[in-house]
Design a protein that fits this description.
Layout (H helix, E strand, L loop, with lengths): L2 H4 L4 E3 L10 H28 L6 H30 L3 E3 H34 L4 H4 L2 H15 L3 H8 L16 H4 L8 H33 L4 H9 L2 H23 L5 H26 L1 H15 L12
Antiparallel strand pairs: 1-2
Helix pairs in contact: 2-3, 2-12, 2-13, 3-4, 3-12, 4-6, 4-9, 4-11, 11-12, 12-13
Length: 321
C-alpha cells in the first residue's frame, strides 16, 4: 500500500517494552514522573527568565530557547506514550506518525543548534569578554533563534520523501513514538535517497558537536592562560551546566544512531531503553542542572517563589538604622 496514494488508510503499530506488555501500566508511572518534572522544570525556567529583568541577558535567552525545545520534545512524545502504556492503544495513522516524527526530529535539531549557540556564548564570555555585549545583542540573538527555526525546517523534504515510499512489510514500529530511522526500515522499495538525506541532516548535528568541542578547546586554552587559580575555577564553573547538557544530549543520540545502524542483533529492549533515554532524560535533567549550577537562575527562582508565596521580608534589603 503506498502512502503517497492513500496515506490516510495506512497505519503503523507502536511498541512499548518488547515482551513486557503486562507491565506497561507500571512503566507509565516513571515516564509520567519524567514528563511532569520536564514540563514543570522547563516551564519554571521560562517563567523565571521572563519575570526577572536581571536575567534578560544572552545566556538566559539561550537557556529559554533550550527550555522551549525541551518542552516541545516532551510534548511531541507524550500523546503516543500515554496511549501505548496506559490505554494500550498501539495504532497510529500515517499522517499523525509523520507529524510526530517531524516534531521529534525538528526539536532535537533545534536543541543541537541551541547547545551550539550556548557554546559560542561561553566562548565569547571567557575568551572575548570585552566584545561580549557588543556582539551578542538582543537583535542578534533573535536572528540566531530565527535561524534555528529555519534550520529545523530542512526536515520538511524528509516528510515528502517518506510519503512517496510504499510500506508493504510489517507496520510494527520499535518504539512508542515515530522516528525516521524506524519508519524507513519498513519500506518495501529502495530508500537510498531517504537514507542519504537523513545522513546529511545527521552530519549537521555532528558538525554542531565538532564546533562545540572546538569552542571548549579554545575555552580551556584561554583558562589555562589565566594566572589566578580562583579566576580559572570561576571561569570553568560558568561552563559546567552547559557541558553537562551537551553530554546528556549527544551521548544518547550517538548511542541510538549506532544501535539503529549496527545493532541489528542487539536485544530489542536495548533499542527502546536508549531511545527513551535520548528523548526523556535531557528535557528532565536540563532545568535541574541549570537551577542547581546557575547562580542567577537560582536567585531568580527563589525571588519568584518569595513573590508567589508572599514571604515577609524575602528578597528585601535590610533597612539601615
Amino acid at each position: 500500500m503506498s502512502p503517497g496514494n492513500s496515506s490516510g488508510a495506512l497505519a503503523f503499530l507502536l511498541t512499548g517494552i518488547p515482551g513486557m506488555t503486562r507491565f506497561h501500566r507500571w512503566a507509565f508511572f516513571p515516564c509520567c514522573l519524567m514528563y511532569l518534572i520536564s514540563m514543570l522544570g522547563n516551564g519554571t525556567i521560562l517563567l523565571v527568565v521572563r519575570a526577572n529583568r536581571r536575567l534578560h541577558q544572552p545566556m538566559c535567552y539561550f537557556l529559554s530557547m533550550l527550555a522551549t525545545t525541551d518542552l516541545g520534545l516532551t510534548l511531541s512524545t507524550l500523546p503516543t506514550v500515554l496511549h501505548v502504556f496506559w490505554y494500550g492503544t498501539r495504532e497510529i495513522s500515517f499522517p499523525v506518525c509523520l507529524t510526530q516524527m517531524f516534531c521529534i526530529h525538528a526539536f532535537s535539531f533545534m536543541e543541537s543548534s541551541v547547545l551550539l549557540a550556548m557554546a559560542f556564548d561561553r566562548y565569547m564570555a571567557i575568551c572575548c569578554p570585552l566584545r561580549y555585549s557588543s556582539i551578542l545583542t538582543s537583535a542578534r540573538i533573535a536572528k540566531i533563534g530565527l535561524g534555528m527555526v529555519c534550520r529545523s525546517l530542512t526536515l520538511l523534504p524528509l516528510i515528502c520523501l517518506l510519503r512517496q515510499l510504499p510500506f508493504c512489510r510489517s507496520h510494527v514500529l520499535s518504539h512508542s513514538y515515530c522516528l525516521h530511522q524506524d519508519m524507513i526500515r519498513l519500506a518495501c522499495t529502495d530508500y537510498t535517497l531517504n537514507n542519504l538525506y537523513g545522513l546529511t541532516l545527521v552530519l549537521f548535528v555532528i558538525l554542531d558537536l565538532v564546533l562545540i568541542i572546538l569552542s571548549y578547546t579554545m575555552i580551556i586554552k584561554a583558562v589555562v592562560g589565566i594566572t589566578s587559580r580562583e579566576e580559572q575555577t570561576k571561569a570553568l564553573n560558568t561552563c559546567v551546566s552547559h557541558f553537562c547538557a551537551v553530554l546528556i544530549f549527544y551521548v544518547p543520540m550517538v548511542g541510538l544512531s549506532i544501535l539503529h545502524r549496527y545493532g541489528k542483533k542487539a536485544a530489542p529492549f536495548s533499542h527502546v531503553l536508549m531511545a527513551n533515554i535520548y528523548l526523556f532524560v535531557p528535557p528532565m535533567l536540563n532545568p535541574i542542572i541549570y537551577s542547581m549550577k546557575n547562580k542567577p537562575i537560582r536567585k531568580g527562582l527563589l525571588r519568584l517563589l518569595c513573590q508567589r508565596l508572599a514571604w515577609p521580608g524575602c528578597g528585601q534589603k535590610p533597612r539601615s538604622h
